[in-house]
Write a structure and sequence with these properties.
single chain, 169 residues, alpha+beta, Nucleotidyltransferase, domain 5, two-stranded antiparallel sheet, two-stranded parallel ribbon, 6 helices, 15% strand
């Protein structure tokens, strides 16, 4: 599972940290989920982010893989909720489009564009790291800095609809 921490000030952004939460050594899925929660909470406590951006679940052919991915995303979200950090989700195609201009870009293309944008020396061997950073950069490009008071996170459809009655058709 990749992550990225982006420093934002006005219209400027910079790479703070990027990496992977390695889970290969853990055999059971519940233990992997526990490690995701602990590591995400550790990153939150170390960097004190204002917001969390995640890649939204996508539909695949393997239902078991989708279920495990959804659980992992839920645990990462829970770590942010535990520290009262707003969460924003972006579809994989939207992230790729935001970074490269092509919603069907490969992981390698996304990594190359991030290398250029963030000026880091080497592309990580595990491209999950750049995937995590891509969600953060996409969020910034979508106007998602905490300095943007017009952005709001909603905990449910009900709260979104009550704040946006004009968007119901």
């Amino acid at each position: 599972m990749g992550y990225g921490v982006l420093g934002c000030k006005g219209k400027q952004f910079k790479l703070i940290s990027m990496g992977v939460i390695a889970l290969e050594k853990y055999e059971s899925h519940p233990l992997k989920l526990k490690k995701i929660f602990e590591r995400c909470l550790g990153l939150i406590d170390s960097y004190h982010p204002d917001e969390m951006a995640l890649e939204a679940p996508f539909f695949g052919k393997n239902v078991q893989s989708m279920l495990k991915l959804g659980r992992a995303q839920g645990v990462a979200m829970a770590s942010a909720l535990f520290r009262d950090i707003p969460i924003f989700e972006y579809a994989p195609k939207r992230i790729k489009q935001s970074i490269t201009g092509n919603g069907n870009a490969s992981k390698e293309q996304v990594a190359l564009m991030l290398k250029s944008l963030l000026r880091f020396e080497e592309i990580p061997k595990n491209l999950d790291a750049t995937d995590g950073m891509a969600a953060a950069v996409c969020h910034f490009f979508q106007g998602g800095s905490s300095e943007s008071p017009s952005r709001k996170s909603y905990g449910s459809w009900k709260s979104f609809l009550s704040d946006n009655p004009d968007r119901i058709k």
